[in-house]
Each structure stands twice: as C-alpha cells, then as structure tokens.
C-alpha cells in the first residue's frame, strides 16, 4: 500500500452496489475486491445485520478477510478485522424515560386512530429504530394491502408523523414512512453517516463512498452528500467495478 492510500478507505453500500439486490455477490466481484484490498482498505455499511450481509459476501470468514471494517445496522454494530469495536442501540441512546414517554404517546394515539382493521404488534423496538404500525405487524397480506390503500386515501401515517414531529421535537428524532404499513423512528444521524463517525475516530482521512441509492430519499443519500466522503453514485455492481478500476488502476 502506498503512503497516500494508507489512510484511505473505500466504503460500500451492499445491496445494488456490491451485489444484486438481496442476492450474493458474483465471483467476478469477489475476485476483484480481493485484488483491490491489496491497494486500499475496504469497508461496507448496510442497514442489515452481519449474518445477512456475510451470506451475500461469501460467508463470514471471507467478509472479514476482504473488509477491514464491517458496519452492520448502519454502523450501530461495528466490526474491525472481525472484532466487535462498538455497539449502540436506541434505548441506550434515548434513555428509558424518553422511550417510555414516546411509546406511551404512540400507544394512545394508535388506540384512537379510526381505521377499518387492527391486528397485533403496533410498536416494535429494534436495535436502531422504533417501528410504528397502525394496523399491527401481525396483519395478513390482504390486510396489509387493505391498510395501504386506506392510508393512501386518508394519509393515516402522514398525519401521525406530523403529530409526532410536533410532540417530540425535543428528542431529535427522524420519522420515515416506509413500506406499506409502518413508520420507522430513529435518532437524527442514525443513517449511513453513523459509521463515518467511527471511521473519523479511527483516523481515516479519505473516504470514498459508493451507493446505488444516492438520491434524495434514498438510503445512501446522506453518506453520499456528507462532507467527510467523496461520494460515488452507481447504478449496479458492474458500474462499481468499472469506477473502482478508474480510481485505483
Ligand atoms: Mg443499495
């Protein structure tokens, strides 16, 4: 590795950037990354967990040997050379008092929403987010679609988010209406830029970031636009390889 590349890293989104969406990486990609890691350090960042991503990148051992850093769940769970170096979750971050206040409010609000059907699991606490679901996550596929149509007409989730934004402005949360039935709630900055804080602390000076959803609203947009990265927008894994060959001949 030359001096100038010593503190440089290539940071990749996985789905659509290194692999076809939700599919394994091609042999060509794996071979190329293996060559590239001799020139520059590699890292990936994904909303998924290490197990899922390792499956896509030819197993855990291979993932660890190819990538110096693995940032699962956007970096809330961070690995360096295969070792866990930091772990953060939303309860730790918000504190139990705030979580309780927020959950209590949402339970009352959901109880009062007038929608045709309600099932079970209206609130789900995950590592990095709180998932709110007015119809309940236990709904059937048919009920899911029914809610989705109802929501398009009556803006149930949009109205819910407006209320939450006002009520919890002081907690600095972000609300994303995702998929057909739910709202994801997470602290500001808990997108893919979360892992940039870790790389900064690690003394990495130059970060090339590659993502396929680097447009407003896409989950690579924040990291792509961040001042700490050199952002690269790609359409698919083939384009990622082409671009890398130009950058690191
Ligand atoms: Mg992607």
UniProtKB/TrEMBL annotation:
Reaction equations catalysed: alpha-D-mannose 1-phosphate = D-mannose 6-phosphate
EC number(s) recorded for this UniProt protein: 5.4.2.8
Domain of life of the source: Eukaryota
CDD domains on file: HAD_PMM
Subcellular location(s) of the protein: Cytoplasm
NCBIfam families: HAD-SF-IIB
Entry protein name: Phosphomannomutase
Lineage per the UniProt record: Eukaryota, Metazoa, Porifera, Hexactinellida, Hexasterophora
């Amino acid at each position: 590795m030359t001096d100038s590349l010593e503190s440089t890293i290539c940071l990749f989104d996985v789905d659509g950037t290194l692999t076809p969406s939700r599919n394994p990486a091609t042999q060509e990609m794996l071979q190329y990354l293996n060559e590239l890691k001799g020139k520059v350090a590699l890292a990936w960042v994904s909303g998924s967990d290490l197990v899922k991503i390792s499956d896509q990148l030819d197993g855990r051992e291979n993932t660890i040997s190819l990538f110096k850093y693995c940032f699962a769940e956007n970096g809330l769970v961070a690995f360096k050379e295969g070792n866990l170096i930091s772990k953060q979750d939303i309860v730790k971050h918000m504190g139990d008092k705030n979580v309780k206040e927020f959950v209590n409010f949402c339970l009352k609000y959901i109880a009062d929403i007038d929608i045709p059907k309600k099932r079970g699991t209206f609130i789900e606490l995950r590592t990095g987010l709180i998932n709110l679901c007015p119809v309940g996550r236990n709904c059937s596929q048919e009920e899911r679609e029914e809610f989705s149509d109802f929501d398009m007409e009556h803006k149930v989730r949009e109205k819910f988010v407006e209320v939450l934004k006002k009520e919890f402005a002081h907690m600095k949360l972000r609300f994303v209406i995702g998929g057909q039935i739910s709202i994801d709630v997470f602290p500001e900055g808990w997108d893919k830029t979360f892992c940039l804080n870790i790389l900064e602390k690690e003394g990495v000076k130059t970060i090339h970031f590659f993502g396929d959803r680097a447009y407003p609203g896409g989950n690579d947009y924040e990291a792509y636009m961040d001042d700490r990265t050199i952002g690269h927008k790609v359409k698919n894994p083939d384009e990622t390889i082409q671009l890398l060959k130009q950058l690191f001949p």
